Amino acid sequence: MQVAKGDQKSFSILFESYHQQLGSYLFSITKDNEVTEEIVQEIFIKVWVNREELCKVNNFKAYLFTISKNRLLNFLRDKSREKVKKLKLIQDLKGEYDLIDADSVLDQYFSIIEDAVLQLPSQQQTIYHLIRHEKLKYDDIALKMGLSKETVRKHMHLALVTLKKTVRSRIEQLALCIILFYFF
Fold it and tell me: Which of 5, 125, 175, 182 is deepest in the core (most CB within 10 A)?
């Protein structure tokens, strides 16, 4: 066989002879054109890389379909593992955010904010609490804590930036959970 000797023209002829038939076989199982084409390419790359072994092959079609079967089994195994991971993620998210009724969404939102505030450094927590809950002005907080007004402003700014980032991330997770809950 000329392909075994590295003849690229013979390999092209071989590829053209089996490409469509192999693709049809794989597509009947994968039902995905892109995946099928990728597997066909991988198979023929493997044939080319291991072309010296073709001298030992009596039935090229059987050899090609054996490689295809093995590659297809790997693909199906990987796809199955991916599906299991996705299902586990969905279950984990559903468990973390048990949102059965719409009223609990608001409670979840406030809970997310409270948790995020508790994760702030203590001075930022204190300043946030004094401004948001006790409605104190920056000047009053600066005097009470022995800080400059600018330091109070900076701590509040940092607290708000951190809270915004944390709350946005958690709400995105919450939204994903709601979508997964209702559509899966």
Answer: 125
